[in-house]
Design goal:
Order of helices and strands: HHHHHHEEHHHHH
Structural class: mainly alpha
Largest sheet: 2 strands, antiparallel
Strand content: under 5%
Strand order of the largest sheet: 1-2
Number of helices: 11
Number of domains: 3
Bound molecules: zinc ion
């Protein structure tokens, strides 16, 4: 029998090999221990779920494992055959979901019933644990593990996004300030319209990325750009042409700071 320490020492690939070997020689307990550990570490490992189904005595659990394989690999021939065999042996009712009072519970909140399942690992999850993802709802672990490259922002992209965001916010703020009180009105009524392109500018500067890290870059670069413009307007530079020729007011940029930056940041979700 495999010990807890052995389980811990082996990596997932070795555990899978050992689990399969145990299943082949009919050592169901050993196989179950190894394979359960594999799917705990790698819930999207379809092979491990298939082998686990093969050593699982309970028809309901077998069914769950096969269905999980199908969620991971739609149309999988072995899982389909497994389900057919289950229905033949135990009656078609075994394929129906368990009773309503046995609704699955969230993997992370065992007290919450839920019908949601992760599109990657098929584990049940509650609304709080579900994440929107370009290819359907995912649990929080899979969302983290499989973040699309769209959301991975490297240092170079951060610098690019920062530079473009700072420059754009600085320029827009000077323009808003330069039209004086109209800048305030414009910023109050059109901050949402102005904020969105500022967010796009940061994304563009970062190589068309988005996501939480870029949201931070956007919040910092846009705020600094606006504050720098306000600083210029309040500084002695204000007395020099061409700045002295315009009715500068920092109120427009201030309104943009309060209303527009939030829009820009939201845009990069
Ligand atoms: Zn939950
Ligand atoms: Zn998942």
């Amino acid at each position: 029998m495999v010990t807890a320490r052995e389980l811990e020492a082996l990596d997932a690939a070795a555990l899978l090999r050992r689990g399969i070997a145990a299943a082949r020689v009919g050592d169901a307990d050993d196989a179950r221990a190894c394979l359960s550990e594999v799917v705990r570490r790698e819930p999207a490992n379809g092979d491990a779920w298939l082998w686990l189904a093969s050593v699982e005595p309970s028809p309901q659990r077998k069914r769950d494992h096969f269905q999980r394989v199908l969620a991971l690999r739609p149309g999988d021939a072995e899982a389909t055959a497994g389900l057919e065999q289950l229905a033949e042996r135990h009656g078609a009712a075994v394929l129906l979901p368990d009773d309503a009072d046995e609704a699955p519970h969230c993997t992370w909140h065992p007290d919450r019933e839920t019908r949601l399942r992760c599109a990657r690992c098929a584990r049940p999850m509650c609304g709080d644990c579900a994440r929107h993802h370009p290819v359907g709802m995912r649990c929080k672990e899979c969302a983290r593990a499989l973040r699309s490259p769209l959301y991975r922002v490297g240092p170079r992209q951060s610098v690019g996004g920062f530079a473009v965001g700072f420059a754009a916010a600085f320029g827009v703020s000077l323009l808003l300030g330069a039209i004086g009180v109209f800048g305030l009105l414009l910023a109050m009524f059109a901050a949402l319209l102005i904020g969105a392109p500022l967010g796009d500018a940061v994304s563009w500067g970062a190589g068309r990325k988005r996501g939480r890290e870029l949201q931070v870059v956007a919040a910092v670069s846009l705020s600094l750009g606006i504050l720098t413009a306000i600083g210029v307007m309040l500084s002695p530079l204000r007395g020099l042409p061409p700045l002295s020729l315009l009715p500068f007011s920092p109120l427009g940029p201030l309104a943009l700071l309060v209303l527009g930056v939030a829009t820009a940041v939201r845009r990069l979700r």
